[in-house]
Amino acid sequence: MILSLFSFGTILSCVYSVNALGTSCSAPLGPGLAAPGEPFWLETIKDQGVSVYHPNASDYPVFRNVKDYGAKGDGITDDTDAINNAISFGGRCAGGAQICNSSTVSPALVYFPKGNYVVSTPLNTYYYTQLVGDARQLPTLVASENFTGLAVIDADPYIPGGNGAQWFVNQNNFFRSVRNFEIDLRQVPATNEAGTGIHWQVSQATSLTNIVFHMSTANDTAHRGIWMENGSGGYMGDLVFNGGKFGIHGGNQQFTVRNTTFNNVQAGVSALWNWGWTFQRVTMNNCQIGFSILTGGTTAETQSVGAEAIIDATVINTPIFIQTSKPSNGSLSGSLVLNNIKLDNVPTAVGVLNGSVVLPGGTTTIESWGQGNVYSGADGTPRFVQGPIPAPDKPSVLLDDSGHIFGKTRPQYESYALSQIISVKDHGAMGDGRTDDTAALQAIFDEFAGCKIFFFDAGTYIVKSTLTIPADSRIVGEAWTTIAGRGLKFQDIDNPQPVIRVGEPDCQGIVEISDMIFTAIGPAPGAIIMEWNVAQPSGVNGGTGMWDSHVKIGGSDGTNLQLNCPTRGAGAFIDNCFGAFLGLHLKPSSTPYLEGTWVWVADHNLDGDGSTQISIYGGRGILSESQGPAWMIGTGASSSYW
Ligand SMILES: *[C@@H]1O[C@H](CO)[C@@H](O)[C@H](O)[C@H]1NC(C)=O
Ligand SMILES: *[C@@H]1O[C@H](CO)[C@@H](O)[C@H](O)[C@H]1NC(C)=O
Ligand SMILES: *[C@@H]1O[C@H](CO)[C@@H](O)[C@H](O)[C@H]1NC(C)=O
Ligand SMILES: *[C@@H]1O[C@H](CO)[C@@H](O)[C@H](O)[C@H]1NC(C)=O
Ligand SMILES: *[C@@H]1O[C@H](CO)[C@@H](O)[C@H](O)[C@H]1NC(C)=O
Ligand SMILES: *[C@@H]1O[C@H](CO)[C@@H](O)[C@H](O)[C@H]1NC(C)=O
Ligand SMILES: *[C@@H]1O[C@H](CO)[C@@H](O)[C@H](O)[C@H]1NC(C)=O
Ligand SMILES: *[C@@H]1O[C@H](CO)[C@@H](O)[C@H](O)[C@H]1NC(C)=O
């Protein structure tokens, strides 16, 4: 999975100083050196991350290893309480007695070493939390036979006796990530719906990655992989569902799902409602139904599935690929778009529950097919279409060898040894929310790019002038480590400057960034939060990318753009409330692969009461001048107030 590390001739064209090897350090990174049996480097790296705006920052742990909180992972002991203590420790923002809507000052990365962790009630995850398993040997969460509750992992618990009240506002349930787990529900009686893997009722800046669900294959199984009744997400990918009644069950305003496999599931996806979902690269083996879709209404009262797009699917030995609950006739039916669907022994491609076969299947490929209203130009009159539609022209540079849209799993460097990772705090950066770290970080990048993987210990790293991430950099944060621009350099709206510049213009090389947040401290009318120049080495798709990393403008402690920026009418600017000139600028030479990136100008304050609306002015969200290839998967920009 790790790509070759530096490309000789091209790196030399970069502007920063390099030696004859094409890198400024003496020992290029090379392949991963972790010994067999060695734990994931994240488990053993020195723990020195700090949440700098936490009122009790020096005592508040960001990193928590569940074994330090008493979890055994021995497959016998009930570890529920120990894991929940690891999650909640430090008076974190949650429901129940400590009710709160959100907090950015109490982040947590809850780490699970390899092992089998028995749980009997839900693991309640809090706001701004990541649950991370050993990426080398995935830990298994085993639901006990007597498991009770909504799901093994619950991202938005209901308050008992609370009349439907929940810990968090589902549309504002941001900043969550779960990765590297197996979840085994097979001990829970098949007919018990408590056999659910994850209750994932979440919104933007959330991800599920690299998770395998094991469920009962009994005919009467009620097990579900993911249950999601509503929310406003989000991205998930690299998921495998084995058995169960449903792999993914539910609805959400919007979601992007990449690279999922469904084996022996009764209905791979049971979609109750949405505004728009995209499934990209789906594999289904021996299911009964691929997608079971509730259709028939798109008004506020009748909302069912508004739009489902399925791109690059392989479906094998499955009687029905898509089943809608009502015939589609255009007026209120929602939309379905299929592109590059390979069927192998799938008698019905699209059918109606207890109704007609709309599109027969067989062993065949559906190049491009649609059902729903088509609009042309500015004409508001729809034309109902149910049949083949012109296939979009997909340039080959965007595709992989199998003709699918290219995708790249988030790099976690699990084959690398601890000695190949360096902590920026160990090399002079402070990350304390006060010190200007520009020179320290620039020196670390320039010394070690191409030779080490950069670990940004949790913190807020202030930069007072542009920080250039050179080509040949791999950067990993810790529960969304923040780099924040501040000061005079970012004040001139007529001469905006990048806070972070990814590669010098026309520079080539690998750049990978995950788990980071980029921002500016207000006011910053002249800040371009992030500018991408770097191009992937020739032919190395996804060589320059960002996973689970975001541009966030205002709305949290330390940003100076909170309640001092009350809501007001459009155009009524307050100078001190200019958050950025531009969020993310993709320059012509850049070839970004963005997966799950959210560029957000805060419309409410995430700290404090977590609900008060504010008006921050951000000039622009994403400006893409990239000449390609560029992939934006589960990526978007939002604000109430550009
Ligand atoms: C600070 O954190 C420590 C450890 O979590 C805790 O024992 C202590 O009570 C906290 N102090 C305050 C003032 O919150
Ligand atoms: C549920 O099962 C676990 C693990 O087998 C056990 O420790 C626990 O006591 C059981 N709880 C109840 C309520 O039976
Ligand atoms: C499950 O259902 C299938 C199809 O209806 C049937 O052929 C099979 O015998 C059933 N298996 C069990 C164990 O009931
Ligand atoms: C979320 O979904 C649940 C279950 O369908 C429903 O009861 C609730 O009203 C929904 N909440 C919102 C805010 O849409
Ligand atoms: C898809 O996900 C699986 C893990 O579920 C992973 O092994 C594989 O590399 C991924 N493929 C792509 C193209 O992302
Ligand atoms: C489509 O079906 C709905 C009921 O499902 C009906 O009310 C509507 O008149 C139909 N529209 C057309 C254009 O046939
Ligand atoms: C579809 O048919 C099955 C039996 O063939 C029946 O149980 C079910 O209620 C029907 N569903 C609808 C929505 O008509
Ligand atoms: C959470 O937000 C709601 C409004 O959505 C507000 O009424 C409530 O006071 C907030 N809760 C807290 C603990 O501040």
UniProtKB/TrEMBL annotation:
<dbReference type="InterPro" id="IPR012334">
    <property type="entry name" value="Pectin_lyas_fold"/>
</dbReference>
<feature type="signal peptide">
    <location>
        <begin position="1"/>
        <end position="20"/>
    </location>
</feature>
<dbReference type="InterPro" id="IPR024535">
    <property type="entry name" value="RHGA/B-epi-like_pectate_lyase"/>
</dbReference>
<dbReference type="Pfam" id="PF12708">
    <property type="entry name" value="Pect-lyase_RHGA_epim"/>
</dbReference>
<protein>
    <recommendedName>
        <fullName>Rhamnogalacturonase A/B/Epimerase-like pectate lyase domain-containing protein</fullName>
    </recommendedName>
</protein>
<feature type="domain" description="Rhamnogalacturonase A/B/Epimerase-like pectate lyase">
    <location>
        <begin position="421"/>
        <end position="481"/>
    </location>
</feature>
<dbReference type="InterPro" id="IPR039279">
    <property type="entry name" value="QRT3-like"/>
</dbReference>
<feature type="domain" description="Rhamnogalacturonase A/B/Epimerase-like pectate lyase">
    <location>
        <begin position="63"/>
        <end position="291"/>
    </location>
</feature>
<dbReference type="InterPro" id="IPR011050">
    <property type="entry name" value="Pectin_lyase_fold/virulence"/>
</dbReference>
<dbReference type="GO" id="GO:0004650">
    <property type="term" value="F:polygalacturonase activity"/>
</dbReference>
<keyword id="KW-0732">Signal</keyword>
